[in-house]
Design a protein that fits this description.
The complex is a heterodimer of chains A (about 260) and B (about 270).
Chain A (H helix, E strand, L loop, with lengths): L8 E16 L2 E13 L2 E5 L6 H8 L7 E6 L2 E2 L5 H8 L2 E4 L11 H12 L5 H14 L15 H13 L5 E5 L7 H18 L2 E6 L2 H7 L2 E6 L2 E6 L1 H5 L4 H10 L3
Parallel strand pairs in A: 3-8, 3-9, 6-7, 7-8
Antiparallel strand pairs in A: 1-2, 1-4, 4-5, 9-10
Helix pairs in contact in A: 3-5, 5-6, 6-7
Chain B lengths: L14 H30 L6 H11 L4 H25 L6 H39 L2 H7 L4 H40 L3 H11 L2 H27 L4 H35 L2
Helix pairs in contact in B: 2-6, 3-4, 3-6, 4-6, 4-7, 4-8, 4-9, 6-7, 6-8, 8-9
Classes of the chains: A alpha/beta (about 260), B mainly alpha (about 270).
């Protein structure tokens, strides 16, 4: 649970999506998604596997192109951005991948430095080292600095993945299944880290998950993706206060005794 | 066990349709490779230049191949000298051995053997490395951290193979000639000076120059094929294995085709 109440600026919409549609061949994944993310807010997107949750954040990060609809991030229309403009926007977006996506051939230090040395070429060695130490400290893994990713546990890899995105001090964080494949205790650690990132770095975040404990712990607002559209929206309790069998089933399965 | 009735039998497509689809797939693949090569030539001239990564790849591709290349080159020199001796001895022409071996090594064996070893060691390494980066989302991670993965991963590797295969070929040439010298010295007692005088008398500038250019082409092919297969791999770990395997097979096939074509061009140049 959150220790401090987040400061959410409802007049400042950092992500605005309208009528988003995306299909792969004959498979319609997103069918007219509308979404607003406000400054300082943690928004949880719930849904079954294969419902297009990851597709949604990949479109936001400019990794996939939508078929139709508008995707406005920090005032920029993402599908229309190319080259340098898209890179500039990406520096303001942190993307934490489901499998951490750490570079296997590099040490943790090199992994963390990678986005920094490539995008802030004016930084001195000392400044880079200081930033690496700050983000490692933020995720509580300072001792792993010279280790290789293969030497870390799943939870540690997730944390380092989050640290790597934080090093560029993004305004928006996109978490793709942050607790997938982790034990319950490590899940709680990751949930706490997501909340800490929100309060310490003042980020606005979209958290993609099907883990309801994670949704309850980190979400200021929860939306549920069903049949390619957001069917339910509100606080965690509001979303599940419905007679809709599809939603109830999702809840009961997660909290089964 | 479920038995299919007549209505549930899978529909067999006409043979012509199957063949047509296969050709479509081949042409699509060729178009994709052409576009991949086009992108390489576009990105290679645009800043930022990845000098550090190119040097790192040159080390990985070049220096780390030296033990294998040394052993292979040395053995080829000895074996080729040994196998050529009986034929020349029949005509009492063993004094021609250094010239014969030097021509064979410089013109054909060194470039081809280096390229084949390169396709095996380097092609599979690049295919597997990029393939696993692709399926574990590391390439996408680079993209979202505002780094051009094509420039960082593909351009650097293709440049490194294009530079290092000719360098390795020169080294193979030297090691193979040394191996051949040891053999001829042990059997005929030919001195170092006599041997290398005969070796250099037999070859021309065109022989060495054409081998270097040919090796650069082989290196480019190995790099492009490895990167293309790895960069476009899918289907998890199975895809990584396929990418590595396909990189080696395709690169070796293309190296032989290029060897044949370059032989025609060089022969034509020689008689100009």
């Amino acid at each position: 649970m959150k220790e401090t109440q987040p400061v959410i600026d409802r007049s400042n919409c950092v992500i605005n999506i309208r009528g988003l549609e995306k299909s792969f061949g004959d498979l319609d994944v997103l069918r007219g998604v509308d979404l607003d993310l406000y400054k300082g807010e943690n928004l949880v997107v719930l849904g079954k596997s294969g419902t297009g949750k990851s597709v949604l954040i990949k479109i936001i990060a400019g990794l996939l192109k939508p078929d139709t609809g508008t995707v406005n991030v920090l005032g920029k229309e993402v599908p229309k951005l190319r080259g340098r403009e898209l890179d500039e926007l990406r520096l303001k977006i942190g993307f934490s991948f489901q499998n951490s996506a750490l570079y296997d051939s590099m040490t943790i230090r090199k992994n963390l430095e990678f986005p920094l040395v490539r995008n802030r070429r004016d930084m001195t060695r000392a400044e880079v080292d200081r930033m690496v130490a700050v983000v490692l400290d933020a995720v509580g893994l300072s001792q792993t600095i010279n280790q290789m990713p293969s030497e870390l546990s799943g939870g540690q890899r997730k944390r380092i993945g989050i640290a790597r995105t934080l090093i560029l001090q993004p305004e928006i964080m996109l978490y793709d299944e942050p607790t997938a494949g982790l034990d319950p205790i490590t899940c709680i650690d990751i949930n706490n880290l997501i909340n800490e990132v929100q309060s310490r770095f003042n980020t606005s975040s979209i958290i993609i998950t099907h883990d309801l404990t994670c949704a309850k712990d980190v979400g200021d607002r929860v939306v549920m993706l069903l049949d390619g559209q957001f069917q339910r929206q509100g606080t965690f309790d509001e979303v599940f206060d419905t007679p809709d069998e599809r939603v109830k089933l999702f809840h009961d399965y997660n909290f089964i005794d | 066990m479920k038995f299919h009735n007549d209505d549930e039998r899978p529909v067999r497509r006409p043979r012509a349709q199957v063949i047509s689809r296969r050709f479509d797939r081949i042409f699509m693949e060729l178009a994709n490779i052409a576009s991949f090569i086009g992108r390489f030539f576009k990105e290679v001239f645009l800043p930022p230049y990845e000098f550090k990564e190119i040097i790192r790849q040159c080390f990985e591709i070049g220096v780390k191949s030296l033990p294998l290349i040394s052993l292979t080159g040395f053995i080829i020199g000895i074996v080729f000298m040994n196998q050529s001796r009986p034929s020349l001895a029949e005509f009492g022409a063993t004094s021609w051995l250094p010239s014969l071996v030097s021509l064979a090594i410089v013109r054909a064996l060194a470039p081809l053997v280096t390229a084949l070893i390169g396709a095996g060691r380097i092609g599979s390494m690049i295919g597997a490395e990029l393939g696993s980066m692709k399926v574990t989302e590391q390439i996408e991670a680079m993209e979202v951290s505002a780094t051009n993965p094509f420039k960082f991963l593909v351009v650097s590797r293709v440049l490194a193979t294009t530079f290092m295969i000719p360098a390795l070929m020169m080294y193979t040439m030297l090691v193979a000639l040394l191996g051949a010298f040891l053999n001829v010295n042990a059997n005929e007692g030919t001195s170092f000076t006599t041997y290398f005088t005969q070796v250099f008398d037999a070859i021309t500038f065109l022989d060495i120059f054409s081998s270097v250019i040919k090796s650069a082409l082989f290196g480019f092919t190995i790099g492009v094929v490895g990167c293309y297969k790895g960069y476009h791999s899918s289907k998890g770990t199975e895809g990584v294995g396929k990418a590595a395997n396909s990189s080696v097979v395709t690169a070796m096939f293309l190296v032989f085709i290029e060897e044949l074509l370059s032989l025609q061009v060089i022969t034509a140049l020689r008689y100009l």
